[in-house]
Every structure is written in structure tokens, then in C-alpha cells.
Hints:
Blueprint: E1 6-12, E2 17-20, H1 29-46, E3 49-54, E4 60-65, H2 75-88, H3 90-103
Antiparallel strand pairs: 1-2, 1-3, 3-4
Pfam family, one: DUF6145
Organism: Roseburia amylophila
Protein name: DUF6145 family protein
Amino acid sequence: xxxxxxxxxxxxxxxxxxxxxxxxxxxxxxxxxxxxxxxxxxxxxxxxxxxxxxxxxxxxxxxxxxxxxxxxxxxxxxxxxxxxxxxxxxxxxxxxxxxxxxxxxxxxxxxxxxx
Length: 115
């Protein structure tokens, strides 16, 4: 059975923990540290939980949730923070998508070069 989504990593304001899927232990340490910092800072600022998830096409998506009755979760801030991260870390997220597509989906790497 084909898996629809694979979690890359996540963080929770409730458990104060960061999770990196062991499938991605092969990522460089610097990338793993960046993901840890991004996720933990998000949940410290916004609350709730954050997961970075690859869909079946290899696109990296952000999923946030909060527990019922969590009045500290900042829903508007969540949208703004994710947009900020996507803008500031575009290269990181594009590289992660490329990594996933090559190593997990078996796509061939092609680098577009303009002459």
C-alpha cells in the first residue's frame, strides 16, 4: 500500500519535544539543527503543534493543530509565522523537497541551468 504522507519532523508546545523521523537521519546535521530550531521556535511563539509533512508528490507542507480549549494558541500568528518561514527558508525547503523526491520517490535529479 502506497503511503500518502510522510512526516519529516514536528514539535509540540504541550510536550516541549521535537521529533525528527528516523527515515531522515541521513540529512546533514546542520539541516537537522535548522529544522529543530524552526519547529521549536514556532511552537514556543504560537503554541500548539507543528508538523512538516511530505505529500505523495514530494511537496513539503506545514500542519498545525491545537488542543480543544487552548486559548493561548495564536491562529492568526500561525499563518503569519508559516509564511515568514517559507519566505526566509525557501532554499532549505526546496532542498528538502529535492532530497525527498530523489531518495524517497526515486526521481532523477536535474539541475536547470540558464546559459
